[in-house]
Amino acid sequence: MTDYSSQVYWENRYLNDHMEIFEWYQTYDSLKEKIYDFLKPEDQILYIGCGTSKLAEDLYIDEFKNVTNIDFSENAIKIMEDRYKEQKVEMIYKVMNAENMSEFTDGQFNVVIDKALLDSMLCGENALPIVDKMINEVYRVLCDEGVFIIVSNGDENNRKNLFNLDLWEYQMMEIEKPSKVVVLDEKDPKNYHYIYVLTKKGKNEEEKKEEENNENNNNNNNNNNENNKDNKEEDDKKNKKK
Ligand SMILES: C[S@@+](CC[C@H](N)C(=O)[O-])C[C@H]1O[C@@H](n2cnc3c(N)ncnc32)[C@H](O)[C@@H]1O
């Protein structure tokens, strides 16, 4: 069985296929009706596991200009960089593993999109810790009330338990599969793909206050330490003079 979680698999596929654009599951046109309301033109959008999908280009042509794309396959990113070299499309493409996005700062993005990446990860052995790492990283790079949109082949019974609902508001939408669809699990008889929309819960007033208090306490402790150090230096000087 194909291991869609393997980096080697994807590097070889992109090298050998020479296929410029390949769109898994759904196009932007078909998704637009469902996801448009979650996006604002000024949003910073991150597309993880972009592959050679045209989604970012279509978002850009529509009205969403700030799209950063990452994939762990160098070959995929090279194909996309070559595609846009000649065109005046300012999108960012980076080779990066979605399990570790340390190049990005906390809260940098308003929206993160995953189309078929989570599903590929789940094809591997020992998938759950990997999926957890990816979701934790997405949580970190999203701002409060930022939105994580996942387009997946897996229904709620197989996906909902992956998300910690203490941290996310959860909603799910079904979208009909286009007739000639590529699926990761060919045994799946259902006619739908699933769009999971996870909204990062912002901190409530109590949590914000507690964080502020902790910060103030830390600052006070630092000031006290500085004062103690100054006093000690004064005492040492006096003692030396005696
Ligand atoms: C099924 S393809 C989907 C491609 C694209 N999102 C689409 O919808 O057409 C999965 C993509 O995720 C990438 N990928 C898999 N694991 C990854 C990881 N840990 N970090 C970044 N990219 C990853 C693969 O290289 C591949 O391009």
Characterise this structure.
By secondary structure, the chain is an alpha/beta fold. Helix content is 42%, strand content 20%. The protein is built from eight helices and seven strands, in the order ααβαβαββααβαββα. The chain has helices at residues 7-17, 28-35, 55-62, 74-85, 117-122, 127-141, 156-159, 205-241, and strands at residues 45-48, 67-71, 92-95, 109-115, 142-152, 168-176, 192-200. It has a seven-stranded mixed beta sheet with strand order 3-2-1-4-5-7-6. Strand 1, helix 3 (55-62) and strand 2 (67-71) form a beta-alpha-beta unit. The longest helix has 37 residues, at 205-241. The radius of gyration is 23 Å and the shape is elongated. The mean pLDDT is 90. S-adenosylmethionine (SAM) binds next to helix 5.
Quickly list its features.
242 residues, alpha/beta, seven-stranded mixed sheet, 8 helices, 7 strands, 42% helix, elongated, binds S-adenosylmethionine
Small molecules (ligands, ions, cofactors) in the structure: S-adenosylmethionine
Helix content: 40-55%
User: Total helix count?
Assistant: 8
Name the overall outline.
Answer: elongated
What structural class do the secondary elements suggest? alpha/beta
Spell the H/E element sequence: HHEHEHEEHHEHEEH
Question: pLDDT below 50 for ≥5 consecutive residues: which ranges?
Answer: none
Strand order of the largest sheet: 3-2-1-4-5-7-6
Could you state the oligomeric state of the chains shown? single chain
- Would you count the extended β strands for me? 7
Mean pLDDT: 90
Radius of gyration: 23 Å
- From the N-terminal CA to the C-terminal CA, the straight-line distance is 84 Å
